[in-house]
Design a protein that fits this description.
494 residues; alpha/beta; 9-stranded mixed beta sheet; 6 helices; 24 strands
């Protein structure tokens, strides 16, 4: 009789039902709310439903889903109820290659933590008002390869953290300047792709005023732009600064000349007729004596760790500098009360997050003070008045100055008549001696009757004086009958 098999039978351990229930609750996919949707692959908090031939978003979606991939399906409409429950952990939503043509303005109300949204390669035509206003934490938005021709000015409202915006390969004909203009632009935007659209003109002047780190990621290639010297200078500066948006796409940056069918390279417009564009001078400032200027340190790196300036003399500017050189909070250098020796090349050393950069700014100080229009007018008026006064003074000197030389005596007035007053001021121009001479004028012999003091005729006269008697002989004796006081009209008779 064969031995009994009960002695060797194996005992299977039993697990309590309560323990199995607890383990099922701890598993991410153990409950109905966390079960993996059909035709999807679930791994931890990742949910991939790509290429599953879906026409709608599968429901219910696990609440803990962080990444949801719905690309390469047939989801043509994204309604407001695609996520009926709030998904607080979802930070990436991929909806590319779906033929998506409609997105509700309330489609993102239950996914407020979304940071990455991919709507590329679809059939979107318009971006409606406040379409993405519920995505306050969005950082990357991909909208390239659609049919977008209309962008509402408020479509990107409330996207304070958006860093990268891809709008390439669409039908946009108006440059969305509101995205870049100071005061309205997205504050954290560091990349804007507008390549391969229908832009025919761009505001080159306003784009040049943008920070270099934003121009470094402003892509404009493969647009039917019209040739313009301002556009050439904008891109030429970018090439010299080695901005990637220009340096990496030099062959794709083309424009159309007036009356020409073939496109030409924008960076080859220098000196080419009919525009004959000239190259712009990079970072050259001109000022005058006494002016105040600010030198900008426009680095192409965002998130700069530190900056410092070095003067043309090799001195490093630290802190607030001295009274005439001030280092501003934004890294710019302010120079006050310029002097001729302040001219030269200043260098700004930038320590970026990964690499360093050195910028050079040339300052030309003209050796004169720049006057305003009123000062110029006053200066011209003063010069004219001075010239007129000079002419008047010359005329006075030539025609009104008394002649004191002996050769001019023939033109003097004759002596006053006898009946003139015997009183005369010493300030009178009439000489007090005979002959009207006060200075010797060569040999002279007085003959006949002469004139007395103050032109009064003297009958008796003085005896003639020979010329050989010298200078003393030429002096006449004063008239004893008419001696006048200097300041009194009463004669004093001696």
């Amino acid at each position: 009789m064969p031995p009994s098999r009960q002695g060797v039978a194996m005992r299977v351990p039993t697990v309590p039902l309560s323990l199995l229930l607890a383990l099922s609750l701890l598993s991410p996919w153990g409950s109905a709310a966390g079960s993996c949707p059909p035709r999807c692959v679930c791994a931890s908090n990742l949910l991939s439903c790509s290429q599953a031939n879906l026409s709608t978003v599968p429901t219910p979606l696990p609440r803990f889903t962080a990444v949801l991939d719905l690309s390469h399906n047939n989801v043509t409409r994204l309604r407001a109820d695609w996520a009926p429950a709030r998904l607080p952990h979802l930070h990436a939503l991929l909806l590319s290659h779906n033929g998506l043509a409609f997105v509700s303005t309330e489609a993102f109300a239950n996914v407020p933590r979304l940071r990455h949204l991919d709507l590329s390669s679809n059939r979107l035509r318009t971006l409606d008002e406040n379409l993405f206003s519920d995505l306050g934490e969005l950082e990357v938005l991909l909208l390239y390869n659609n049919e977008i021709s209309t962008v509402d000015r408020t479509a990107f409202e409330n996207l304070g953290r958006l860093r990268k915006l891809y709008l390439g390969q669409n039908r946009i004909a108006r440059f969305p300047l509101e995205l870049l203009r100071e005061g309205t632009r997205l504050p954290q935007l560091a990349l804007l792709d507008l390549s391969a659209n229908r832009l025919r003109a761009v505001p080159a002047g306003e784009l040049q005023a943008l920070p270099a780190w934003l121009r470094d990621r402003l892509y404009l290639h493969n647009n039917p732009l019209g040739c313009d010297c301002l556009l050439f200078q904008l891109l030429d500066r970018g090439r010299r600064r080695h901005l990637s948006a220009v340096e990496d796409f030099q062959d794709e940056l083309r424009c159309s000349m007036p009356g020409a069918t073939a496109l030409v390279k924008i960076l080859e417009l220098a000196g080419k007729p009919p525009l004959n564009c000239s190259k712009a001078r990079e970072a050259v400032l001109e000022a005058h004596l006494g002016d105040s200027v600010t030198l900008g340190c426009d680095s192409r790196w965002q998130g700069v760790r530190s900056r410092h300036w070095v003067t043309p003399g090799g001195e490093r500017v630290l802190g607030d500098g001295n009274g005439s050189v001030v280092l501003l909070a934004n890294g710019s250098l302010q120079l006050r009360a310029l002097r001729p020796e302040d001219g030269g090349t200043y260098s700004c050393w930038v320590a970026g997050p990964l690499l360093n950069e050195t910028l050079y700014v040339e300052l030309l100080v003209h050796n004169f003070t720049l006057h305003g229009p009123h000062d110029t007018l006053n200066t011209a008026y003063t010069t004219l008045v001075g010239c007129i006064l000079s002419v008047v003074l010359v005329l006075i000197y030539l025609y009104l100055t008394p002649c004191r030389c002996c050769c001019c005596r023939g033109t003097e007035k004759p002596p006053a008549p006898r009946d003139d007053s015997i009183n005369s001021s010493v300030l009178s121009a009439t000489p007090n001696h005979a002959g009207g001479t006060g200075e010797p004028c060569g040999s002279h012999v007085a003959t006949g009757a002469g004139t007395g003091q103050n032109g009064r005729f003297k009958g008796g006269g003085s005896p003639p004086v020979a010329a050989r008697q010298g200078l003393k002989a030429q002096r006449k004796v004063s008239d004893p009958d008419s001696v006048s006081s200097v300041f009194s009209d009463t004669p004093i008779v001696v």
